[in-house]
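Following the same procedure, sequence and fold were stored together, as reproduced here:

>
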Amino acid sequence: MGLMRYVKTLALNPPIEIWKSKAPENVIQDSIDAFGYINIWEQAGSICDLVSYIVMRIALGADRMERLEKLQGSNDLADGAGSVRRFTDSNAFSQYMNTWVESDSPGVVQFKFAANDDVHTFAAERYTSDGAKKFQVYQGYQGGYRLSDFLGITDPKAFLLPRIMNEKVHQHYNKPLWRDNATKSMTQHDFEFNKECPEKGTSKDAEKVRKQWAKTQQEVFKELNDQVAAVKQTSNHLREEMGADAFKSDVISPLSSMVQGGATGAAYQRLSGHKASDTVTCGRILVVTGNYDDSKIEANFRSLLSRDNISRGFISLD
């Protein structure tokens, strides 16, 4: 049956309360700095930890997720909740994942790793559709794209533009594009159509200001186009259900390369949607797996949709 229809619902209605309860203060402040007056909780759909949690929680339920969370310092669980493993050897990782792929039971997996200096996580499921084994990837990237963008439900441009605008205006004018709802200096529409700029200047320096503003606009739309292209490349590459061979080559192989000594920046961008020019490595990778029961998915989904037992079983890298 698969989890897609449930995940899609929560992609458009992410459980923001989880991030509110889990996000460190510095992460919240970074979000405020990046997005200005915009409701920072709207970013929840891009938080990779939250996206993975949604998938794992729908599949396994709150009780099993909580038991897995308690296992993070160990290496396995014998009572059926699932498994938490850490790999520093690429061969051991590939062997473990190839065995997982070959299983016939419906199941989920969450990968979590530090890609160079950037921690990322995403989830995937294994299920049967029309008599054939299939795999589905689910992910978001904080500040880069939401789960709904990855799944092709929404346009990543609408999410990316406010952040990039704010960053560039702050860079050139040393002040945020938007302070708050009441005193925002301009609107997104104004920016796109050059109706005003943060510093109008006097007649003496008006031409200098105009040129700088035009340059700022060019920088914004170049970065926007580059980031949208990266997101859509990953989305087009991974968002459709795939067979075992494709899952091994498109997901397991680049992760194994990262553990072994490095995946190319291009390979990591295809996998994550995050631009990377250098080789991407990770010293270890955390893998959380569990089989699920189709008959329990609806109840698990309803529990999460109602925000019941919120944030139980949140998996960390350490």
